[in-house]
Design a protein that fits this description.
heterodimer, A: 109 residues, mainly beta, six-stranded mixed beta sheet, five-stranded antiparallel beta sheet, B: 118 residues, seven-stranded mixed beta sheet, four-stranded antiparallel beta sheet
Amino acid sequence: KQEVTQIPAALSVPEGENLVLNCSFTDSAIYNLQWFRQDPGKGLTSLLLIQSSQREQTSGRLNASLDKSSGRSTLYIAASQPGDSATYLCAGFGNKLVFGAGTILRVKS
Amino acid sequence: NAGVMQNPRHLVRRRGQEARLRCSPMKGHSHVYWYRQLPEEGLKFMVYLQKENIIDESGMPKERFSAEFPKEGPSILRIQQVVRGDSAAYFCASSPRDPLNSGANVLTFGAGSRLTVL
């Protein structure tokens, strides 16, 4: 049974800081790993998708990596901004998408 | 392309009533997933459907919950005799193809339906 764990559960940083969110999964038989953003009371926005054959993906200030052998993924956010404040969810896709509980990020101006 | 459309966005029911949540997938998508997000918790998988077929319902409670995705029309998640513990946000996602037989599969999520049971 796939389980996805995210650390830290919450993070508060000053504006401009670089930060890393961590995600670990128990079953290495995942096809893809996807990072999402969720704003309070809103739906999910897909940020990055890493296919199982890939090691990382980049989009703007975001970089996500995937290490299947260790069962870990990280989301790196460069030069954080207050608008980045949200809950960040990682999800591993085996036969279905399994979500972590999320990291609540607050970027202080 | 309107994306994944869910309605109603907000639904209030009294205990014992029925709740019906609808999801229209993105155009061209034939695979639908339902997830539930309880307050302060992550998203939990409920059911995966293709047109007229339930592929995986391992996350669905055995009683009171059912889902369908008919040949025509939206997918429906139905909760009978709702209880307060059913209060949650219910998210639908769709994809264009079978994730097990494709190299990459990006799920597109709807904005969710928030059910409140009084």
